[in-house]
Amino acid sequence: MFDRYQAGEQAILVHIDFPDENAREDLQEFEMLVDSAGIKSLTVVSGKRNTPHSKYFVGSGKAEEIADAVKLYDANVILFNHSLSPSQEKNIEALCECRVVDRTTLILDIFAQRARTHEGKLQVELAQLRHISTRLIRGWTHLERQKGGIGLRGPGETQLETDRRLLRERMISIRKRLEKVEKQRQQGRRARNRAEIPTVSLVGYTNAGKSTLFNRITEADVYAADQLFATLDPTLRKIEIADVGRAILADTVGFIRHLPHDLVAAFKATLTETREAELLLHVVDIADERRSKNIDQVQEVLQEIEADKVPQLLVCNKIDCLEDIEPRIDRDEAGLPIRVWLSAQQGIGIDLLFQALTERLGKQIVKHSLCIPPNYGKLRGALYQLNCIADEQYDEQGNCLLKVKLPVREWQRFIKQDEALIQGFIES
């Protein structure tokens, strides 16, 4: 075995173009992934193939070229912009005498670097263990056999079998702990549903500006940076929406082309916030030339996590990077907002986003004028707690003249305290 990969190392990048669109990867995006992982890129070895080579993934000549590049640049890791089989990784490592990391392992490593919460670390570890479990043979080829010799012959467990068993036990333990976290999340969702508080979830391709928009809307201090997977751990914050009231805004992990299935499975509890939201804010980097492909990729992941049926509002972000684009709301034939053009970084068009949220989430609103006598101050205080008072004045007799505006259900819940009394205070 060679030295294990560590962030900060110097790498040879390998990128192969395939005619099949499903197998094709983006080199620019791969370079951003490498930069996000804190790795220095020495050079890129590229080529074209119709199908992957069974032994080296690349052809034997290209494999020799990679080996020469490793010696020339004194690299200590080879990064492939593709998913490799365990045998392909083993063969390339033996030829190049250098550690090989494929695209899936690189993404898992970035997630491991960014995980901050206990839940996030557990989810990343589970995904890594699933990935490593098929690659144990590479590290333990000298321990495949059972122990032999006097007193050691007979049935026994090989080192490889021992490691696999320990991996399975660790994965079972992590799943149980994640199940507890999921139950806690379910309790939180049930509480919000009872209080009829809608949830709005931010989704989108990685580095589309979701966390910047989240910070702009909620005045939170979530880490935001111009790099892939800056956000890993989900964050929930309360926001106030006109004619809707309180709502929960969720910032989630960004999606990427060919997101590893192990990650999708591991982050199932986190992605449930997306699946059970009332509305998805699909944030798009409108200045990115690959925006159409990125939108399609996000839709594929949403379908994979069964969230493709949730209503969406497209947020065209980073309009400050384009010329002659003004903030606006695009509507469908029925007049319902379907797209909002804004810049989260500059704070342009945020008011239009809230307007669109009001229209998409707005419930049936009731408006009443109340005349509350001076000795019913508690009733006035209860209305203030509901944050529903639009105007307040006093007449000559000291009566409090209130104009209230709130959703029908909240009004019905309020008048249950003493319906006859409250109805007597309503001015016709």
UniProtKB/TrEMBL annotation:
Keyword GTP-binding included in the entry's annotation: yes
CDD domains: HflX
Highest taxon listed in the record's lineage: Bacteria
Entry-linked PANTHER family: GTP-BINDING PROTEIN 6-RELATED, GTP-BINDING PROTEIN HFLX
Cited HAMAP family: GTPase_HflX (MF_00900)
InterPro entries the UniProt entry points to: EFG_III/V, G_HFLX_dom, GTP-bd, GTP-bd_M, GTPase_HflX, GTPase_HflX_N, GTPase_HflX_N_sf, P-loop_NTPase
Intracellular or extracellular location(s): Cytoplasm
A Pfam family recorded for this sequence: GTP-bdg_M
Function, as annotated: GTPase that associates with the 50S ribosomal subunit and may have a role during protein synthesis or ribosome biogenesis.
Gene name in the database record: hflX
Coiled coil residues, start to end: none
Name the UniProt record assigns to this protein: GTPase HflX
Subunit structure: Monomer. Associates with the 50S ribosomal subunit.
Family of this protein: Belongs to the TRAFAC class OBG-HflX-like GTPase superfamily. HflX GTPase family.
Assigned keywords, A-Z: Cytoplasm, GTP-binding, Magnesium, Metal-binding, Nucleotide-binding
Source organism of this protein record: Thalassotalea insulae
Gene3D superfamilies: 6.10.250.2860, GTPase HflX, N-terminal domain (3.40.50.11060), P-loop containing nucleotide triphosphate hydrolases (3.40.50.300)
Residue ranges occupied by any Hflx-type G domain in the UniProt entry: 198-365
